[in-house]
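2024-03-11 09:14:02 DEBUG pipeline.ingest accepted 1 chain
2024-03-11 09:14:02 DEBUG pipeline.ingest length=723
2024-03-11 09:14:03 DEBUG pipeline.predict start
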Amino acid sequence: MTTYLLGSGAVVASGAGAKAANLDRAMAAGMHVPAGFVVPDAVEIAGLSARLTGLGPVVAVRSAFSAEDGNNSAMAGRFDTELGIPANETDVAAAVERVRVSGEAVPSARRDVLVMEMVAAERAGVLFTEQQFEDDLVNVVSGLAESLVSGTEAGDELRLAKLRWKERPASDLPPWQRRLAELMRDVRKEFGEGEWDIEWADDGQVCWLVQIRPITAAPRRNETFTIANHKEILPELPSVFMASVVESSSHDLMSFYRDIDPDLPVDRPFIESFAGRPYINLSQLTDLLRRIGLPTSLLADSLGGEPELLVGINPLRLVRSGPTLIKLGLAQLGSAKAARIAEADIAEAATGPFADFASTIDALRYCYVELVTQMSSLATAMTGPVAVLRSLGTLEGHLSSQRTPGTRMLDELAPMAELARRDAGVRAELEAGRLPTDPAFHKLWDRWLADHGHRGVFESDVARPRFSELPAPIIASILTYTDRTTPGAGRRSVRLIATAPIWFFARRPMAAREQIRWSAMRSFGVLRSRLLELANDAVADGRLSEADAVWDLTIEELISLDRGGVMSAGELAERRQLIAERAEMRLPDLVRRFDDLAVLTGLRDANNESSFTGVSLTSGTVTGVALRAGEPPTGLPEGFNKETTILVARSVDAGWVPSFSQVAGVAVEIGGDLSHGSIILRELGIPAITNIGAIGSSINTGDAVVLDAGAGRLELTEEDADA
């Protein structure tokens, strides 16, 4: 009879199905594949003894039909597999016939059968390798993997870092994992960076490839998501509208990386919402750095939060990624110029006219994506120089001499504060929470609004009012204004002069990043006004019960109003009930896709630590009382004073600037050197630290605390807070 030995190349040449052909190819390439042969469909089952010689006491008899393991359909489990068959002609022939019969119900050009030596497996399992991920997803059980494949046992799940050319597995891995990683390196070398579903078995000495086929239905991985840097720019619970804008922009937000290298894996969902909060796919960003060979710690430095996985520099990958890194470097050099062009595009996008919700939303999405894309590019350009300046101890000194739009927002309150100090009437009206009627004050106020009135608290959510609409925080800041120019900022030490060239490469993208945000918020303000106008029109003709409801709807629901849809008062009440329930949830900064959010809410508040360490932004020590705030306070609570109040916030950005004039120090749960709030705090010179992690219920308003900004530490003290 004619049968085809695995590894001879004859299986592929015979036109056999993918299952057998792939194993033939793998064995020919030198991979460990159990010995075996293929019995073609048209061949009578006779004369198998010669082929069975040397295969061991028992074999596996498996379908290798041409209908199986294609790119679009695997037909996994549709046909019989016979395990533990005694390696004699009678038993094997009968098993081959039974396997063939199992395929009669499915039309197939060929019903070849694969006979392979059984591996005495200590461990076995399945593995999915996908181009989009830097880890292979492994399910493993003790012994044979039949229970895992059949679904009767879940097995243990783990992630195994991919190895590429000349890379070796980590020495601290168990031996079987090292063998499996090396096997997969060889699989990718031979079959390419495809989407492969692998069955494997390890006998304690060798890891065997049992099956390789294309993935036709990829598993949904339990990826890690971070709220940074959304925690900095969005409120604890963003509006339903803005959350849907952000999530709908998921694919476009990766355009910067896609333009640098079209081969980079950027098709995974970059944004996913958890209880109404859009989180960033930290696993995806981590994989991008690992693929290039850069250290994953760069993510925490730029975004804040914690890295999902700490992996250092990979020199081999850096060399292989040379063209990508060159493109990235060129993009960094031109990032400030690109931001200026994008700034003009964002301004033009908001000019309209906008006849309906759909066109207004399209403009907002364009502005949002362009803003985030440019800020990502600028942040990348800043990362290296900022890290060097921080390590040399000159970052704070250089930043203290810089003034970006966020800092100028506070600086330019000085003339109004001076007028209030001189004029008792002006001061009295400000203390009453009113804008003074004094003409000189109004002239200064109008000038300030022209430059900064479009900014606001958590301004990236267009549902939030701008300072021109709600000026209370600014009024309070005028009363408490203090010149925040760092003493000696004008003097240049030898170290500052020596690091000036490095500062040049950090300063330009940093200034451009804050400038484009300032400009984009002006466009956001224009589009916010137009959305409210359209909402009022919808109220007038009965499509919407109230104008502010526009922020409680998704973009799809608003677009349906363009087509005559209606959001009733009852439906709106149900939506607001859901929003209220979500507002009660307090999610951690890191969430995994399959986490139980109700459990996480309880864990977040369970923290009882008394000391928190983060990233030092400035120097200085403040002993005082904590003021815990989720939103910028418009004034200090009764009994608090500016000299001893330490603001403890979930996150801060430009909208918090008015509050910085009212406190002596700031501690922020999440943020990095490159976050907007961190840059502003350094420019102002306020004793401040960031990225101290979730505080939970450990520190509350009124607690006695010590902020050692230089050491990056916030501590709860034993002192009586009332004293």
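2024-03-11 09:14:41 DEBUG pipeline.report The two ends are 97 Å apart (CA to CA).
2024-03-11 09:14:41 DEBUG pipeline.predict end
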